[in-house]
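User: Hey, my collaborator sent me this sequence without any context and asked if I could get a structure. I don't really work with proteins. Can you help?
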Amino acid sequence: MELTISSATPFTERLMARRRSLALAVTLTVALTGQCLAYTLELDQPGGVYPEGKVVTLTVKADDKSSLADLDYVMVMANNRTPLDITVTQLTPDWQGQFTPPAPGWYVFKAYRRNTTTREKPATVGILVAPERIRSARPEPTNFNEFWKEKRDAVTAVPLKPELTPLTDEQKEREYTSDSGKVPALEEKATRLESEGVERWNLEIEMMSPVRPVRGYLTRPTNAEIKTSPVIILLHAAGIGQFWCRGNSIEAMALSQKYNAIVLDLSAHGIMNGGSSEYYDELEPKLNAQYKMPKHWESSQLAGMALRLIRAIEFATTLPEWNGKHIVCIGESQGGGQALMAAGLDTRVSGVIALVPAMCDFAGPLLGRPSGYPKPISFDTLENRPDAVEPALRDALYCDNIYLSTRSRAKTLIFAGLTDPTCPSPGIAAAFNNIPVEKKILFFPHKKHNDFPAEDLWIGKFDDLRDGFLLEHFSE
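Assistant: No problem. I've predicted the 3D structure and written it out in structure-token form, which is a compact way to encode the shape of the chain:
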């Protein structure tokens, strides 16, 4: 389901035409001992977004009708936490129930199978009620603008001296290797892209102490003309050495070729590209500890990411090939949070594509909503360590996209999962609501966090939607 504030465009018209042509039934599969039972959970509004006051009808079906006898119970949980009553209206041939949401917000339905030996993961589907009414849990810090002006001035006071160095043979070999060994196709792809006129470099830009440098890959067409190339900034999910959080110069080169673009693939932590597993293993405990706000704000992971974004955008705008118009930030999870953050920190960011973005609604538990990743406070904090709430929020709120989004001037496309406990959809909706320019949010009722469930593909595939956004935006 989407919410949008924009006029019709070729991209949105194509998207809606595609959706109208696809079936709306959705299927959830639960793995059972010795068999596979397919439950189909059907919402009467398959997109998962409901107006306030509307009764929600949920139907649970099974491929084998007799298997519904194994259905233990179905429950609905407000904010994926508080169980509420659902009225059973039908048991056969399909289970059906109705639920009246008591207020705007997030609700998750869970269907459990009767099992006396193990508790399997339930089949789930989520909804949002009146997401346009979800707002921040507490007011913006009063000195928000002054705070960020001071930090931006500190970044720009450091002379801009970018260093571009060739990738080493060791770095290239690690990019061509998976857990199962070397992948010749990756080396062939990189060799082809370089032979077709795309170059790749290690990028490093000094920052003020104690912030680690901007580090990542820079790729671009070798013979790009002056003022002809958009900038694409790729931002990564949480983690240190895992594949999803490392830079990938090969994919960056592919985007450079496809869009005649300058691509910056940035490390979230300012660490070296293409390091050994030992290098990342040694760093991981230290870097993970810095997600908790330390004594000095600049030493935190949130601060480092934000300050390096300011620096990276400053650098990108000095490149003679930049077309002076387009800077698009793309990321998933923590990377999606960084993409929204970048737009809030620099109005030259013209576009954002954020998949299940983090850093939205840190103070959510104050209103009964789960906090956005990296969750500086939780319900446990409120209940068992109330004195820790304000210290935890004091500095983290300056990096909360609920407030940064109000300053964005970037055309924005957001993806949110309605069963995602890591980057919960209410906080994402609240940040989306604060974006004052053209925007679109797509809700996936069955999406948790890392998955892209087949039952939601009628809404669209991420790569297709990303490419449609970029093609349209770069033509503007």
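In plain terms: The radius of gyration is 23 Å. You can pass these tokens on to your collaborator as they are.
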